[in-house]
Amino acid sequence: MNKGNLAGQIFEDPRYHEACRSCMNCGVCTAICPAAGYYDYDPRVIMNLIRDSDEETLTALLQSDLIWYCGQCMSCKPRCPRSNVPGAMIQILRSVSIKNGLFSKSSLGRQQLAIKRAIGHNILETGYCIHPTRVDPEMHPEQGPVWAWMSNNSDQVYGRFDAGYDQAGPGLLRKISKNSLDELDRIFEVTGCKELWDQIENSHLSL
Q: Is the pLDDT confidence value at 2 over 50?
């Protein structure tokens, strides 16, 4: 873990100059932010903390639930009079938090492991973020008995809606070809996503 220069890692991210061109502390981002209406969450304050560049403060921020409240709706982007993007800044903070293992100190941050193992693996193994056969009734009892029946009879149910279900060719739930899955796998590799996944897994194992 490299906790010695968190500010440097943030400023070196290629997204930083778009995310924080010239914040003037007007608070428009907070006024428009949906998350601010539900949580003790203030994008304006976060932008100020980053610009202050205090390592102790940044460490506390990257260990907190605060950076995981943002829903990434990007409502802040078109409203900012200086064209800053606080939502993109949150992306940077999350990346730095994961790379330094600080996300594991946050209950919301630790949810990245479940997301990685669910949605992430779904994409690489099926080609879909969420596939009906991957929503296990035992893991999601809140779906109720109807979903359990549908899950156990997926061929019969989904075949009625989509003749191409789990088949090669067109269709909303078509079977994704191996070539396409291999291409997705390569994209995840070259963009650094798999490296990030390894960091999430390794941080979990060290808890």
A: no
